[in-house]
Amino acid sequence: MTITIFGRSGVKSEKRKRPGTLAPGRTHRHGRRGNEGASAALEPTAALGLRLMSLNIAHARRKAQHQSLLRETTIRRNLALIAGVIEREEPQIVALQEADGPSSWSGKIDHVETLGALAGYPHAFRGEHNSPTLTRLDVSYGTALLSRLPLAGPRSLAFQQNWRDTKGFVAATIAPEELGGESVDVVSIHLDFLADRVRRGQVEQLVETFRGHARHLIVMGDFNCAWSERRRSLDLLHRELKLRPFRELAAPTYPAWRPLVRLDWILISEGLDFAGYGTLEDRVSDHLGITATVRRRDSNPKAARCREGAATEAQPSRLPSVSLA
Questions:
Q1: Is residue 313 in some structural domain?
Q2: Residue 246, Cβ density class (10 Å: 0-12 exposed, 13-18 middle, ≥19 buried)
Q3: For the domain that residue 113 is a member of, what is the CATH number?
Q4: Tens-digit pLDDT profile for residues 39-72
Q5: 286 lies in which domain range?
Q6: Pairing of strands 123-128, 2-6
Q7: Residue 121 belongs to a domain
Q8: What is the rounded distance in angstroms from the CA atom of residue 131 to the CA atom of residue 89?
């Protein structure tokens, strides 16, 4: 597999690695049907469209207070759990946040390369969003994309609005058969957790990057923002880039062991519709993962709205692969 990494300087490097073995086991594919507000993983069929997944992997620390307190073997075990969920869900594109490169504080493992090898993803792109101080301290993390499709024109942006801003996004272009071979820009983004003002400034950088774009656009990630706070950041994405979520209300994603708020989103542009959406129940991070299936917008707007309105109820859910011990 090929891993492409863009650091803060924009210099690109590539590493080649033999594909690893798939994570063991798949879960039973039948369970209770999902409904709005319930934590349920939905399983749209591949024929419905492009399958997506987004997950903040929390530096592979899972339930620990900090990844620097864990042994390398524990980090690798946690990555194997995450890879098992990805393999089971079978998305064509996975957006990752808090995804580490080789770093002294998280096992000195390239987390993205490891997940790609374990889950069988031949294409990956990771961006470094650290501050210069953290980089000198041998800390490496950012956002990433795993893909079964070639990633064209990969790029990375570190927001760096202030000394503590270590957030950013990565983006690439794909041409999935499920969308008729049309080009789609896919983005994995992580926004500030503390200040609305900083978060809005970060969203403005994303908007400037894609303003006037002609391709379909999908933005996935940890927005650290609930829908009730949309006027401070998410409305800007809707107004300027014509992005929208699957419904305004859905299952919360954070914290994973007792979800209270929906911080993780998949937003799509005007030419696309949701054919399925789900919140996963696997506790492999402090966030729950989300999945979606998207397709080209139906020429009949009324039919598209009806299909999207029933998306969480028309598909069987999957049982979680990781139980809370």
A1: yes
A2: buried
A3: 3.60.10.10
A4: 444 444 445 899 999 999 999 999 887 887 789 9
A5: 34-318
A6: parallel
A7: yes
A8: 34
